[in-house]
Amino acid sequence: MEQADLLVCHAAQLATLAGHSQRPKRGPELGDIGIIEDGAVAVRGDTIIAVGATSEVLSRVGAGPKTRVLEAGGRLVLPGLVDPHTHLVFAGSREYELEMKIRGAGYLEILARGGGILDTVRATRAASRQDLIRTATKYLDQMLDQGTTTAEAKSGYGLSLAEELKMLDAARELDREHPVDLVSTFMGAHAVPPEYRDRPEQFVALVIDEMLPTVANRQLADFCDVFCEEGVFSVDQSRRILQAAKNLGFRLKIHADEIISLGGAELAVELGATSADHLMAVSDQGIRRLAEADTVAVLLPATTFCLMGDRYAPARRLIAAGAAVALASDFNPGSCPVNSLQIVMGIACRQLKMTPAEAISAATINAAHAIGRAGAVGSLEVGKQADLVIFDAPNYQYLMYRFGANLAETVIKSGRVVKGGTQQ
Ligand code: IZC
Ligand code: ZN
User: Fold this and answer.
1) Quick one: how many helices (H) and strands (E) in the chain?
2) Average pLDDT estimate for 236-248
3) Nearest ligand, CA of residue 86?
4) Which end of the chain is more exposed for a tag (fewer CB within 10 A), N or C?
5) What is the distance between the alpha carbons of residues 313 and 311, in angstroms, rounded to a whole number?
6) What region does 331 belong to: left with phi over 0, alpha with psi -120 to 50, or beta?
7) For ligand 1, mutation pick of 90, 336, 338, 339 (most atoms within 8 Å of CB)
8) Which residue lies with its CA nearest to atom 5 of ligand 1?
9) CA of 153 to the centre of ligand 2 (A)
């Protein structure tokens, strides 16, 4: 009998999210999270070797004197949460924007005045790679503490070749050093930097001709993303950048239809993007296209909340149409300083009207699909990476109900207990 190194047992509820490693969940599938009562997970090394009812797992896997046993009685066990959209690496902060927004200033208005993203670009350019790593480590520690075990991280506050490389190098080192696994996205087309203000087409050319090939050569990012938005990058510019990225082997993401309905969702589907993100202003046609495509619709309701918007992404219509919906934090210094997926799921339930089960599917297996990692993470299945969280919640509905509290009690990343682990 195979011996387990780690055994989590007697969970009141264990949600496996199993059966969707090949294709993301859509429609009613989102509501079924594969609950096992009195559930257990057995781990050897960094891999899951058994999942099921505790009695069943104990009959298949040996627990010797060296096996660490965590009793999860009365608690909820989920796969480690996956955050598929963050702007993790940056310097500085923009708390002053809060009062500007309270007084009625819009996000794009602040950016047009040279603030917003461009303020973070100034701070990030002035920071060393080591400064960026130190700051991001603090944010990653907070994320892990709240149950996030895999995250995407975008560049896009450098906006010159050297500065973008500095950000991507920092992300690579963070991926190596920190328990949270990072998937890197190159986002040189996040904003037009001040030195190109009067010649944005030349900046697009710089992204296409210099930045993309260098980032590809150095294998510094899996994905390429563009902020396709009025006053930022047009649909035509976004298409050219993303097509060039695709030709170099990048997988694609788009900041699509966040504030103005430009057709970003349609562009994402046209280019075969892995995800279309935001979608607060997605058109009916965009919803239909997403429903027919493999492109994952990544919704970021904490951003709408922080922007004090009155229009949330149409999650119910997307789910009803058959789109594969995921959730992410959008953690960044401006539009969304929230890095807790527990909070994001809580907002998704209340404002997107997603059910607790749908929110969990969206922040685990579907989120893993949105970053191309569903083969390794996002569900509790034999052979997958042993990333799991024990929540101080008697059932999965309770996790959403206790909005604002951090209920992640024990976090296990690649088979290693990285938080808690005191339940004997
Ligand atoms: O720093 O404002 N929306 N990019 C697009 C952001 C928000 C990040 C920021
Ligand atoms: Zn974003």
Assistant:
1) 17, 16
2) 98
3) 2
4) C
5) 7
6) beta
7) 336
8) 227
9) 10
